[in-house]
């Protein structure tokens, strides 16, 4: 049997629900839920930012490698072509 706190000889019983503690526990669980939600959102944003940064770095590396290969091929073709034409002039 639950006797309310208003009475002078009240008892705390497992069947009693203290409304103050209940509201505090509800509020604290809501705060924990919101903090967990914020933490999950922050982690997802950080992971997405890292993935995007990795993708951008990969694209930049690929572009730099392609440009270097093209420059090397052009230089080799120009040098070989110049030597071939120079040998043709000598012969």
UniProtKB/TrEMBL annotation:
Identify this protein by name. ABC transmembrane type-1 domain-containing protein
Q: Where are the transmembrane segments?
A: 30-51, 57-81
Record keywords: Membrane, Transmembrane, Transmembrane helix
């Amino acid at each position: 049997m639950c006797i309310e706190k208003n009475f002078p000889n009240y008892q705390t019983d497992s069947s009693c629900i203290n409304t103050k503690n209940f509201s505090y526990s509800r509020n604290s669980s809501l705060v924990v839920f919101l903090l967990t939600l914020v933490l999950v959102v922050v982690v997802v944003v950080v992971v997405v930012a890292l993935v995007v940064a990795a993708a951008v770095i990969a694209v930049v590396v690929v572009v730099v490698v392609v440009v270097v290969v093209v420059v090397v091929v052009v230089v080799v073709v120009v040098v070989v072509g110049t030597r071939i034409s120079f040998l043709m002039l000598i012969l």
